Amino acid sequence: MLKHLSLIWKLTLSFMLVALTSAALVAIFIRFTTSDRLFGLIIEQQRSELQTTLTEYYSEHGSWQDVEQNWQKIWIDSLRQPTPNPETPDQQDPRKDPSRDRRRIFGLADADGVVLISLEPFFHKGETLSQETLNKGISITLNDQKIGTILTAPLEPRLTPEEDMFLQRTNQALLLAAIAAIVTALIIGILLARTLVTPLRSLTAAVQKMTSGELGQKVNVDSNDEIGILSQKFNQMSEEVARVNRQRRQMTADIAHDLRTPLTVIAGYIESMQDGVLQPTQERLALIYNEIERLQDLVSDLRTLSLADTGEISLHPQLFSPRYLLERALAPYQHRAEQQKVSLRLDIKEPVNAIKVDESRMMQIFSNLLSNALRYTSEDGEILLSAEQKGQVVEIAVKDTGEGILEENLPHIFERFYRADPSRYTETGETTGLGLAIVKALVEVQGGNIRAESTIGQGTAIYIQFKASDQVLEEQVED
Ligand code: ATP
Ligand code: MG
Q: Domain residue spans in the chain?
């Protein structure tokens, strides 16, 4: 049943329960301590007064003779200070109306322990009491000699009307306090529950909207408690989901665009050749073949990325010295660099430990980085391939003195289909914007990390780090 109650009711009910329990506990506590103390006080006070009166009586008479006949008088005499009551003085003063005093709670035994004044039903007149029972009473002494014992009933004495009234008033006050506590609990419960429930409700609404396809939902965060943190995390998640979704759409559009352009070129040529408008010369066939190669490259790039996404890229990691890898990577680009009048150099700060990587994937990485560097570096520029041991990692860098990347574009260069200058594709058909995305995926799938630094007009550096092995490989033979 509790399962179906809303949070507001659950909280309010629990507050009320706590308030009621504490009120009840306080009531019980006060009831006991008050009456206990009252009774204790009454008995204490009356007994000491009775003690004095009885001692006086004994010294006057020299014995307990006729004490029973005089008991009523002695008893009333002992109440020297009756509680004054201005409203009904005669009723409240036991001197005037002894029958109203119901606190007959004392008996008397003589020095031998024989009961002189009975206290029914505990002590009967004439009965001789045991020492143990006498010890519980209060002894009366005269000139250091024991002359008797005041016996006290193990009974709760009845309360006088004022005492009754006092207890009644306390109970009334407690009842009022309990009611006030319940009302307060109700108000606080509802208020507090609202502050808890409102953000939860808006979270639920936002989740519902996201489920029905309205991505990018945001909720207000106005606390730092667990619900506030949940709302914050929800907002982060929602933003990320929206971003990924945008990226996916953009990527589909990019793929479609990049596929269509070469296909249009190919279809155009073939159509014209079929119509006899163009002759299928070697040159034209080479152009068509070129476009087909681009399509193949694109499809293979996409395949690499999708394999990386699903973690299915095949790897054959082996230990390689960074020098060996960089030398192999550099060789195929040396000629192109010379043609472009760009100096391509190697800089290895020996000793550098070997790294455990897949050789062909590393070649794929370097070929992407080097073709970028060559593409964006003009004549008389310089491209530096370096390797350096940095503690537990080996850092490999490809630095160029090319055109650099704008600061605002730098965070995006590893995204798929991202080109800082989108016109490059449309004008020249040269780039796909997949190069660095593939590099990043290949580095990460081998346990490394990648970052870029660039200053516009001065050049770009791409740093790759791999975990260093514990050995240095001197000479590596190509297999
Ligand atoms: P692809 O490599 O697929 O042919 P691309 O080179 O344009 O296309 P990426 O290699 O992913 O794509 O690079 C993304 C963008 O980052 C590039 O379009 C370019 O704007 C910028 N960039 C990358 N490397 C450099 C560099 N060395 N100097 C200047 N800009 C660079
Ligand atoms: Mg590239």
A: 2-105+155-163, 226-310, 318-467
The protein residue with its alpha carbon nearest to ligand 1, atom 24, reads 372
Q: Is the separation of the CB atoms in 255 and 302 below 8 Å?
A: yes
11 lines ligand 1 (CB under 6 A): no
Residue 414 CA to ligand 2 centre (angstroms): 10
What is the distance between the alpha carbons of residues 53 and 269, in angstroms, rounded to a whole number? Answer: 137
Q: Are 386 and 397 in contact (CB under 8 A)?
A: yes
Q: Does 226-310 match 318-467 in CATH topology? A: no
376 lines ligand 1 (CB under 6 A): yes
Ligand 1 centroid – CA 367 distance (Å): 12
**Apex 290 CA angle, 286 and 293, nearest 5:** 135
User: Which CATH code, of 3.40.30.10, 1.10.287.130, 3.40.50.200, 1.10.240.10, is assigned to 226-310?
Assistant: 1.10.287.130
pLDDT digits (tens, 9 = 90+) for 35-73: 666 767 777 777 888 888 888 888 888 888 888 888 877
Q: Regarding the domain delimited by 318-467, which CATH topology (the fold level of the hierarchy) does it fall under? A: Heat Shock Protein 90 (3.30.565)
- The span from the CA of 359 to the CA of 364, in Å, is 9
From the CA of 414, how far away is ligand 1's center (Å)? 9
Please tell me if the CB atom of residue 269 comes closer than 6 angstroms to any atom of ligand 1.
no
Residue from 254, 296, 372, 401 to probe ligand 1 pocket by mutation (most atoms less than 8 Å from CB): 372
Can you list the residues of the chain whose pLDDT is less than 50? 83-103
